[in-house]
Structure formats: structure tokens, C-alpha cells
Amino acid sequence: MSPLDSNTLLRVDNLVVSFRTDGSPVRAVQGISYDLAPGEVLAIVGESGSGKTVGSRAMVGLLPDTATISGSAELAGTQLIGLKGETIRRVRGERIAMIFQEPSTALDPVRTVGWQICEALLVHKKMTKQQALTRAIELLDLVGIPDPAQRVHSFPHQLSGGQKQRVMIAMAISCDPEVIIADEPTTALDVTVQASILDLLHDLKDTLGTAIILITHNMGVVADMADRVAVMYQGELVETGQVRQIFENPRHPYTKHLLGSVPYLGRPRPAGLDTVSTPVTDDVVMRVNQLCVDFPGRWGGKPTHAVDHVDLDVHSHEIVALVGESGSGKTTLARCTVGLQQVTSGIVDVLGVNIVKARGSKLRDARRRIGFVFQDPAASLNPRMTVGKCIAEPMVIHHMGTNADQVVKVNELLDAVELPRDYAQRYPHELSGGQRQRVSLARALVTSPEFVVADEPTSALDVSVQARVLEVFVRLQQSMGFACLFVTHDLAVVDMLADRIAVMHHGQLVELGTREQVLRHPQQAYTQELIAAVPLPDAAEQAKRRTIRRAARLEPPQDV
Q1: Centroid of chain to Cα 381
Q2: pLDDT digits 0-9 by tens, 429-441
Q3: Are 527 and 501 in contact (CB under 8 A)?
Q4: Cβ count within 10 A of residue 12
């Protein structure tokens, strides 16, 4: 292998990763090779389980002991494969940083986010504690966390999913690394914050020459960020090329399939979603009236109005999409509907039960008729239980069916979410992020609920699987007859399946209407801003948008 030249920062050559199992070894990465130049963004795309994340983790020593790695990954003259102990720890964070896919499991729940950012600065930059704290506040402000001087003292559970993801990005850029491995860095972010984060990463690479390996299933993000694209399928690198060449003239059949599956605003609904629609009835399944949820301020400060006098209902057979920025109160409202969040004031009525006042057996009976798909499947699935037991757990809790009945139901739902039946014997950590999300969906439906709350149920799914899962989701709604409150930041997904759309901003419901009304003829400026920020799978169009955004940021304020 030839030495690295000045135009190559990282060279990966014939990287192979396999995992030892009770049976034959599983080869997750099969001899991939690529180069990365300083300041370049290489997007690695492909289905869940294609080896995208495994190949990148192998370079920084973040795979379990069951992994066997061969091949080469050379960073500016340093061979990364085989580094151990303190040597690899000096590389991680200082020279290569990683933004993890699931912030809830990557952040320490008993430490403040400021402490966790300061930890890397104290280790690698030799700062004083006060200097590190000041820098942590600057970084939180840089990634768009509101009131960073206060939020630096918050614990992860006090932040929304999108805010936790931004904390992860702040940690990654804290030590000005040469390479950032961004594993789904915008998965949990709403579109307006996503645009600002992409601009931030662009500025970082332009000013510091930081190279970025972008692992994602969002082809709009690829079109916005990437210089080159590498497409992976079943552990192999099947196609690489400049971003415009990949989007405009893909060569490999899988790349063509991947691009053909991308949802975007205005695209006609897939035939499968149109043919299973069920008439919405006047029966109200879920109703909240003047709902308020306040969180107490830190050290006696002003309370945070997470949900502020919201009125909303969901009818039988209806899918209502709840959209808005990270921290707008979407998930808090959703958790109120199933009794997982204490209500300050207002009414929550689900299936004729007052959820605010229900207790004991009455609340348990109501929850049997409700399904909930959590935003972060890695945090909601029991790591000590097999996938099959995780799915069957609600049936066990509610004493539904025999063991044989539960096995049959688990197999039916694994088929429905397009996972092999033998996955029932695996554990959650043995599945990719997208596969865990499908397990979470199957678990939510195992009791045949009448009302389902889905909190970002497709956020971790690659585009080729997402369309199929959404079709399955709607078909299951048809056959099971449940109503759904669908919480998401992906407006393209909303366009595919929602009957009505509710837009939240700063805890308030600012716009409510049919899908056609809200997406095609938005009335509120905030809704218009949300729609304009949706990335398109078009490299040329995204380049124009990025130029306009940058010009708007750099334009000096006008004198009044």
C-alpha cells in the first residue's frame, strides 16, 4: 500500500469485520476500501445492517471482543487497526470524534451535559475547570441549545431527543478533531434545527479542514452535505462517486432502488398507502382539552411551559401527525395521553377513560388498549430479554393468551415489520438501530390496541425500509382499526400517511388542519419555515439552498 499523500487524510484498505457467534462467524463488513481528504465529507449510505456503522466503529476500537478486524485504516500516518489501551484513547476524541446514533444511551444519565462536555476538554486540552465550563457553554450555544448557561447544568433526561443529539455534536467538536464520524447526526432533529446543524458542520470543515464521515439514511442530508457518496449493501461497497453523479446517474441497481425509495414533500403517495385508507369516523378516541404541563425551574427559577393550553382530538381510524421543533412539547403531550407524564392542568380522555385521574387496575386496563412506540428503542427495550420476549412482554403483563399464543403473535408481528422470525432469539444489542425500531413497533401492536402513540417510529429506518414499514403500519391500522397520534419531525413521512397535521411551537398548538391544508397552504409563518427547511434529495437544489442560507447568515443587520 502506497504512503498517504497530502490530499489523503484517512485511507481505509480492504477492511473486513466479522463477529464470532455460536454458529458460523457473521461477516458484517466485507473488504471495503476508500480514501478521505482533509475537509471532505464522505457520506456512507445503505440499509440498516449493511455495515455502515460497524466499519466506522472498527477504526476507533469501539466494537465488542467478539469482533475480528483485518485490513488497514491509516490516519495521517497512524495505523488505527490494532491500537489498544491508552494509545487508541488518545486518538478518540482528540483526532477522531464520533457522534453516536442514539444519544440516550451514549450520554451518562447521572452527569450533567456540561460535565460530559468538560470531561473531554479536561483530558485532551488540559484546560482549567472554569475554562472548560466556559467552552462548554460556547459549544452548546454553537449547536443551538437555548439558554446554554442554564442548560449546561441540565441532566440528559431533562432535554428532548433532539437537544440530546445536539449535546452529542457539541462533545464531538469540542477538541477540534481531524475526522468526525457522524452516525445519523440529524436523526432526532427537526428540519429547522437540522438545517442549522448541517450549516454548522459545513462551517467546521471549511474553517478547520475537518473531514467528516457521514453515516445516514436521509438522502436529503446526503444531498446537502456530501462531496462524495459510498453506497453499502450487505457489507460490501457497491458504488462510490461524486454526490451529483450518484443522484443524477446511479449505476448500481441497489443505488437506483435506494434513491427511488426516498420520500419527499409533494411526491405522490405509494400505491400501497392509497389503497388501504379507512374512512375516519366522528368517534373521538383521544381528546386533550386545555392541557398544560409545566416543569419546575432549576433552583427556584421560572417554570418551563412544555405544553401550554393545548386542545387536540384524534378520531377513530385517523392518523394525526404532531410536528414541530425539538423541545416544542410534542413528546411531552404524547406521554400525557398514556399517563407517562404528570399533567399540571387540563383534561386527557382516552377511550373514555380520564387518564389524569385513573389509577391502579383502571389505568392498567386502559393501557392494554393503548400502544406506544418510543423514540429511542435502545433505551426502551430490556437488554436482558430476547427480542421475542420484548415483543411479548405486554401480553405477559396483561395476562393475554398462553405461551403458545404469544409465540404465534410474536411471529406474526415479526413478519409484519419485515424481520426474520429467528430474530426472536436475538438480544436487542445484536440488532441495528433500524431493526430495534421495528421491534419497538411490533411490541406496541402486540396487544391489538385501539389507540397507538408513535413517537418518531421511523426516525432510525433507512429509506428503502421506511416506505415498506409505513405501508405495513397503515395496513395494520386498517386491519386492527386503531387510531394514531404520530409524533415526527419528518414532514415527508407526514405527507405519506397523515389525515390531519397539528403543528406545535414553544408548547402551543399553532396550526391544525388536513394534510393538504397544512403542507400545501400553510397559514402560519412558523409552519412555512418548517416546510422550507425540509432537505430535498437533489444535490444541485440543496447547494443553492445552502448558498442562500449562508448569505442570509452573513448579511449584516440593517440600520433602523
Answers
A1: 16
A2: 888 777 888 898 8
A3: no
A4: 25
